[in-house]
């Protein structure tokens, strides 16, 4: 019954709108536009709040393995990044790096799938985003790991020059 009533109301809207004169129709459009715009903005704000809460919760709360959780520029306090090699083959840049943990705690680099956190820049500042990366990389305490990132060369217009990690530029050798 409710579905039938809603469907009838929905189907009658075009007739109601046509019955309105130009000025009233304009007011209806503005009202609907404002309501939809507000709903979209609220939805974006909710998603942003959930994301911030998630990051703060991960950072502030203890992880199961007592790891230091990194999601921003503070990574330099905990790890050293070393570029081992950069290769271009079949339209893909392969960037091999070393991540050395400078602490006696496990370190986890997080949110690497977010575009702002991992980028390859060329000499002209064009950016390529990694399409195949783990969201998190865990480095054991007082140890180092090798890791490989892959970036499409089609996004760049000149040779790769810089790896950008958490908005910090690391020159390629």
Give the termini distance in whole angstroms: 70 Å
DSSP E strands, number: 10
CATH architecture of the largest domain: Sandwich
Q: Rounded to an integer, what's the Rg over CA atoms?
A: 25 Å
Indicate the proportion of strand residues.
25-35%
- Indicate the multimeric state: single chain
Overall structural class, as computed from helix and strand content, comes to alpha+beta
Low-confidence stretches: none
Total helices: the number is 2
> Which series of helices and strands comes N to C?
HHEEEEEEEEEE
In what order do the strands lie side by side in the largest sheet?
6-5-9-10
Write a compact overview of the structure shown.
The chain contains two helices and ten strands, in the order ααββββββββββ. It has helices spanning 2-19, 22-60; strands at 68-70, 79-89, 92-101, 107-109, 118-122, 127-129, 137-139, 144-152, 160-165, 168-171. The strands form three sheets. Strands 6-5-9-10 form a four-stranded antiparallel beta sheet, with no helix packed on it. Strands 1-4-7 form a three-stranded mixed beta sheet.
Description:
- The chain has helices spanning 2-19, 22-60, and strands at 68-70, 79-89, 92-101, 107-109, 118-122, 127-129, 137-139, 144-152, 160-165, 168-171.
- By secondary structure, the chain is an alpha+beta fold.
- It folds into 2 domains: 2-60, no CATH class; 68-171, Immunoglobulin-like.
- A 4-stranded antiparallel β-sheet has the order 6-5-9-10, with no helix packed on it. It has a 3-stranded mixed β-sheet with strand order 1-4-7.
- The longest helix is centred in the N-terminal third of the chain and has 39 residues, at 22-60.
- It is flat and about 70 Å long.
- The model has no long low-confidence stretch (mean pLDDT 82).
- Keywords: Signal.
- This is DUF4352 domain-containing protein.
């Amino acid at each position: 019954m409710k579905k039938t009533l809603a469907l009838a109301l929905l189907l009658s809207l075009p007739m109601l709108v046509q019955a309105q004169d130009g000025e009233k129709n304009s007011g209806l459009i503005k009202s609907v536009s404002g309501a939809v715009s507000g709903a979209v903005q609220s939805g974006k704000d909710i998603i942003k709040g959930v994301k911030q809460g998630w990051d703060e919760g991960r950072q502030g709360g203890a992880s199961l393995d007592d790891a230091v959780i990194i999601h921003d520029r503070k990574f330099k306090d905990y790890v050293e990044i070393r570029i081992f090699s950069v290769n271009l083959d079949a339209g893909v840049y392969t960037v091999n790096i070393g991540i050395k943990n400078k602490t006696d705690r496990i370190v986890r680099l997080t949110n690497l799938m977010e575009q702002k956190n991992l980028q390859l820049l060329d000499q002209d500042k064009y950016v390529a985003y990694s399409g195949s990366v783990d969201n998190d990389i865990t480095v054991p305490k007082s140890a180092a790991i090798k890791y490989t990132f892959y970036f499409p060369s089609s996004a760049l217009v000149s040779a790769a020059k810089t790896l950008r990690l958490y908005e910090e530029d690391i020159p390629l050798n």
